[in-house]
Structure formats: C-alpha cells, structure tokens
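assembly run, all chains below
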Amino acid sequence: MTTPPPFTVDPNVGPATQDYLDEALANPGFGQHFTDHMVVIDWNRAHGWHDAVVRGYAPITLDPAAMVLHYGQAIFEGLKAYRQPDGTIASFRPEANAERFRASARRIAMPELPDELFLASLSELLAVDSRWVPAGGGESSLYLRPFLFSTERGLGVRPAGEYRYLLIASPAGSYFTGGLKPVTVWLSTEYVRAAPGGTGAAKFAGNYAASLVAQAQAAEQGCDQVVWLDAVERKWVEEMGGMNLFFVLGSGADARVVTPELSGSLLPGITRDSLLQLAKDFGLGVEERKFSTEEWRDKAASGELTEVFACGTAAVITPVGHVKHDGGEFSVSGGATGEITMKLRDHLTGIQQGRVEDPHGWMTKL
Ligand code: PLP
Ligand code: COI
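ok done. output:
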C-alpha cells in the first residue's frame, strides 16, 4: 500500500465536559483518563489497510473466537505529545516508533502499518483532541498508545488474516507515584522476560504478561521494579519492566555511561538511543556492552559505579537507588540521585518541551 487511505471523522462524539478535562489534566497519573476520540484502521488480506476513521473513544466488540484472545497476536507502541512554548504540539521521534512498530509486527507475523499511516494517525487524533495536551512548562504530556491485534474469528493456530489498529491517548504525569524519587529494584533470577530467539526485542503484549508475576514478586520484596537478566546465564543485565538501564562509571572528566548492548532479547528503546547520543554530545564516554550483576555489585561497593538510572517514554529518566536480590541488597552512591542522571534528564525533557535546542531534529510537529 503506497497511498494511505484518507481518514473520515465521525462527528457524533460527545466530548468530555470541561470539568472532567480540567480534573484529568490536573491529576493525570498514568493511563487513567482517555481522550474523546480514537483512531481505527482495519486490515485484511483482500483490502490491505482500509477504513481509517477517527471516532469517539468507546468500547469495541470482538468475536469470542477473535484470534487475539486465544493466541495473543498483539503489539503496541508508546510515545508522547508535548505542548511547545508557542502553543503548538510536537512529538519526540515518532518516526522511530513507526519503524519499531513495523519491526514488532514482523516478529509476531502481523501486517506492517506503513510509517506514513502511523504518523497520519497521530496527527489526525491530535487534530480533534488537542485540548487534551497539557499546558507546556511542566512534565505532563499526552501519552499516545498505538496498538495492533488480530481480529479474525477462528481457532486454527496461524497468523490471522484480519487485524485492527487502534490509537488511543491519555494525559500523563509521573509514571512512578513517588515522582522523581530513586526507585528500588529486584534482580529477577527465578523468572526471565525473554530468551534468545524469542520476542524480547518486540513491543509484544505477551512480554508484558510474562513479566507480571516477577513484578508481583518484586513488590513483595518491597521493590518498585524488576530488573531482567539474560535467560541463559542469569548474569547479564538486560532491562527493566518498561525501561532500559544505564550505569555511570567514574566521575568528572573520566565519567562514562554504560548500557547493556542490544542482545536481541531486550527492547531497543528510543530514549536509550537518544541518551547515547546526548551523552556523546556532552563529551561523556559511551559503552554499549554486556554488564553483569557482579560488576554492578562490585563497582557499587568500590565507588567506581556512581549512578544508575532507567529510561523510557513513560518513565522518562528515573534514578535507581537501591538493589535487592536473592542473596542480599546494596545501594549505589547511598541511593542518591546522580548529577549526570539529572543533567541528561533535564536536557532530554528540555528538548521535548521545546526549552532547549534540538540539534538532531528529534521533534516532529503533529
Ligand atoms: N523496555 C521496555 C520493555 C519497554 O516497554 C520500554 C517502553 O517503551 C522501554 C524499554 C523504553 O523504550 P522507549 O524509550 O522507546 O520508550
Ligand atoms: C512506554 O514507555 O511507552 C512503555 O511502553 C512502558 C510501559 C508503560 C509499558
């Protein structure tokens, strides 16, 4: 499909009252409130992508034998729209999300949504729901959630022949209820998130379902998040539940950032990729390599490891202060938030909010 189908807009939508909207924007939380509209685009073998429509946000009906309910073909993306100082709305590297959405689709044997249609769906939704984008100058934004799932009815195990793409949006404040407080993490050695050759590099719903029991275990241990290790040796750090990880070694002129290399089983985060670039721009050393739990523990003890943080669209940059595992626990730099963590965070959010220059052309007007 080369020319995206035009979108129709359903006029029969009762928008949220101003009171409801004011309340949602004052206390957005994460994923609690949804905008007035959603985008729907269907795919089938005969027609490809068709019937693109912006319609009122509402429940959808599915056949009980819809294949997604049985065999789980479902992928998603997550990106944000930010109010700029001049009142316009821009998003951060949406082209990268479009590309990753196609990569996820390929891995789960689903049709690839063309990038131009993915990007058009964002603009079409924002055109009718712009009042849901929080005011600029703060950390709030409008979280955009594109997703794709199989709708064909049937119980044969095979790639479905019918799919539905939906885009919904939700005002977002801080992902963690504690705000910017350093989080405590649990090193998961019992459960793994993804194995070599598996689906870990895709934004596939099943990866998140597989993570929930370990997340519950982390909560039982008094931790905020799980850190996933490699499936084979249970030794190499991969990532967190919805975030990639960075380690800062050394300080001052010797400081360098290390992040686990893309192993094939962790998600290639767009924030991760952007921070590698910003760290280089700041003159910091940058290493993408394997990082073990022993290195984490030993260098935290020796003081060479000065900061640890997690990053992702929803979580932005969140400091990691304390680590618990089966055999004990330890802190990094007394559990305090580090200087480089804050410098990268301020710069990244500055670009997103239009406060600082965007030399890499990462912001796209919607
Ligand atoms: N890792 C996982 C498992 C995620 O779900 C996410 C969130 O999208 C990330 C990492 C961070 O990716 P990004 O920076 O593209 O949001
Ligand atoms: C995101 O950061 O967009 C995520 O998808 C993380 C989580 C909410 C699943």
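Residues 57 and 241 are 28 Å apart (CA to CA).

The longest helix spans residues 205-220.

not gonna interpret more than that til we talk
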